[in-house]
């Protein structure tokens, strides 16, 4: 009996240690008011809003989401970089130690919907302090869904090109500190409906696969 109890105790300790080691940091939940007027967009026809339940279907438990609209997309705008969601989560001094629990195990996840509109491409950029180094993912990941879906990507699994002026060819997440990570949103190759209405919510970082 004593041996069995000892084994169970070891298992419980292991499970508890794993649970404690798993960390989640919320980058944006879009519930509190945000000043969106200075968020960069390709042109003035692209509109940001924190869409409320009366105007947008919401993720369960959410009252607001980020909505990005472009109602008249011209045919010549394939792959246009519409905007990017700038995430400075690990950029502050207070978060540097938190990054040590993430590093190469960092997953970026969020909820996303394209509503009754065209698909979008997602592309990712990683910056170090003062944009000394900057890398863009080679992958443009297409997405289209009229309902909310979960999207996740492990940052260290992406292939990157050097978009900056630094000499580091690609980011090693075990040695760099990404002070900014951007989610770039691009238009599709074919604009069948000639409009984009993408919604995002609950942008999270985790050090485990969500």
Structural class: mainly beta
What number of structural domains do the residues give? 1
Helix and strand run: HEEEEHEEEEEEEE
* Head-to-tail CA distance between termini: 37 Å
Instruction: Please bin the fraction of helical residues.
Output: 10-25%
What is the top-level CATH class? Mainly Beta
The number of strands is 12
Net shape: globular
> How large, in whole angstroms, is the Cα Rg?
20 Å
Biggest sheet: strands, sense, closure? 6 strands, antiparallel
Low-confidence segments, ≥5 residues, pLDDT <50?
A: 5-17
User: How would you name the CATH homologous superfamily?
Assistant: Galactose-binding domain-like
Key words describing this protein structure:
mainly beta, Jelly Rolls, six-stranded antiparallel β-sheet, 2 helices, 35% strand
Account of the protein in words:
The chain has 210 residues and is mainly beta. It has one domain: Galactose-binding domain-like (Jelly Rolls, Sandwich), CATH 2.60.120. Helices cover 13% and strands 35% of the residues. It is built from 2 helices and 12 strands; from the N terminus they run αββββαββββββββ. Strands 1, 2, 3, 5, 9 and 12 form a 6-stranded antiparallel sheet that branches. Strands 4, 6, 7, 8, 10 and 11 form a 6-stranded antiparallel sheet that branches. A hairpin with a 6-residue loop joins strand 6 (120-127) and strand 7. The longest helix is centred in the N-terminal third of the chain and has 20 residues, at 2-21. It is globular and about 45 Å long.
């Amino acid at each position: 009996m004593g041996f069995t109890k000892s084994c169970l105790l070891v298992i419980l300790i292991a499970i508890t240690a794993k649970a404690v080691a798993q960390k989640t940091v919320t980058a944006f939940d879009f519930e509190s008011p945000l000043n969106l007027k200075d968020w960069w967009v390709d042109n003035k026809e692209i509109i940001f809003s924190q869409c409320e339940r009366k105007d947008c279907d919401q993720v369960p438990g959410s009252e607001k989401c980020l909505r990005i609209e472009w109602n008249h997309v011209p045919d010549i705008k394939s792959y246009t970089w519409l905007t990017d969601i700038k995430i400075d989560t690990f950029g502050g001094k207070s978060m540097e130690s938190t990054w040590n629990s993430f590093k190469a195990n960092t997953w970026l996840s969020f909820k996303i919907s394209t509503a009754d509109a065209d698909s979008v491409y997602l592309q990712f950029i990683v910056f170090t302090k003062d944009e000394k180094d900057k890398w863009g993912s080679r992958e443009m990941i297409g997405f289209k869904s009229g309902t909310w879906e979960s999207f996740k990507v492990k940052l260290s699994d992406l292939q990157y090109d050097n978009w900056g002026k630094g000499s580091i060819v690609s980011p090693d997440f075990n040695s760099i500190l990404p002070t900014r990570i951007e989610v770039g949103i691009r238009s599709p190759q074919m604009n069948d409906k000639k409009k984009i209405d993408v919604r995002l919510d609950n942008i999270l970082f985790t050090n485990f696969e969500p």
